[in-house]
Amino acid sequence: MLSYPASAVSTPDGQVNVLQITDLHLSPPVFTDKNTGGKNDSAVAICQRSFEAIIKQALSEERRCDLILVTGDLVNQVQVEVYDHIFEVLQATGIPFACIAGNHDVTDENNSELPFFQRELVARPADTRLLNRHVIETDHWQLLLLDSSMTGKVEGEVTTADIDWLCEQLEACAKPALIALHHHVIPVDSDWIDQHMVENADIFWQRLAAFEHLKVIISGHTHQEQVRHRQGVTVYSTPSTCYQFKPFEDDFAYDKSALPGYRWLQLANNGEVASWVERLDT
Ligand SMILES: [Fe+2]
Ligand SMILES: [Fe+2]
After folding, report:
1. What domains can you pick out in the chain, each with its CATH number?
2. If pLDDT is split at 50, 70 and 90, which confidence band does 116 have?
3. CA of 182 to the centre of ligand 1 (A)
């Protein structure tokens, strides 16, 4: 059985192909009978089906997948059986993987039928399988996974201790580096979600400016594809495996025209990165 979490990845050619999936938002009940899930068109069934279809589609591509990173909001309601299901699906791939928490992994939103800002937020303990301050070493890269979630809150935080930890890892290893966290560290120009990004992003960027070998940051949370550049770092935002938010809207809005998606990152031996988003085939 595959050991969890992935902490070292080595490949024949040294290049690492990372599959990022994010914002699965699965809820109970978990459908174990494929027919039941297949015919049920509730939001719960749609998100579960979409997550499993994304895994199947991504891994049926000709590209070798060396690592799966799951960047938070695995669930919509914190229930152990939902995590059990997600981990079973990921274990069955036989590919090393690692998961970090998003806001929904530590906070239940009650009254989800109400407008976003009127919902009741209930703090929940994170599932012990979700990682914080976790390092994955590869032949030519160092991957740093951070938990940016705050219990009972939608917004995120990278604490001073987190930044100290990042700096220590970057000082100790000269390989090109990637940071993965749930909340975005650079605004996506959508007011409502930018109010819920990493709170102390300015300090984060100030402290990390010293490290030229920090090449890539990936996050979820925004449910949309974006690419931005800051201080020589390429910052990727990735669509949800289920539903998308409308880009550049100041008020909460779904993007009903955008399909579920996932991101590939090809981490080359020389520190270069190729990355793109794929959408679920309809
Ligand atoms: Fe999300
Ligand atoms: Fe989120």
Report:
1. 12-279 (3.60.21.10)
2. confident
3. 9
